[in-house]
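quick q for whoever's on today - can somebody do inverse folding on this one?? i tried earlier but teh output was garbage lol. tokens:
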């Protein structure tokens, strides 16, 4: 079990943490450290499937840049969305030092 999935499991099992439960039409966009379960969108995995934006930018022609197939297309959009989310958190942390200096320690049992 990955640390990410352990934190997720802990958050879901402890109602006092008030972790927001998803409705049927909502999803969390998560990285490959999370299991692909209902309500959690993870990218496709595989040796030949690209995910990170720089992987799509390598190559000499625009044809080499384009996603190859539906899995890479999904991964490209997933990675683009995660980049936007991470930049938004960066902007918020730059604006409000409280968020930047916040240290939350989650403990979990193995």
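ok took a stab at it. sequence:
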């Amino acid at each position: 079990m990955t640390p990410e999935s352990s934190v997720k499991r802990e958050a879901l099992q402890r109602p006092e943490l008030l972790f927001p439960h998803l409705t049927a039409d909502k999803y969390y966009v998560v990285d490959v450290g999370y299991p692909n379960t209902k309500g959690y969108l993870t990218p496709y995995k595989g040796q030949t499937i690209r995910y990170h934006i720089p992987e799509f930018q390598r190559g000499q022609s625009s044809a080499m840049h384009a996603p190859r197939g539906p899995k890479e297309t999904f991964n490209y959009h997933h990675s683009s969305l995660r980049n936007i989310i991470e930049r938004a958190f960066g902007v918020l942390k730059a604006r409000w030092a409280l968020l930047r200096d916040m240290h939350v320690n989650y403990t979990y049992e193995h």
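fwiw The two ends are 9 Å apart (CA to CA). also The beta strands are 28-29, 40-41. so keep that in mind when u check it
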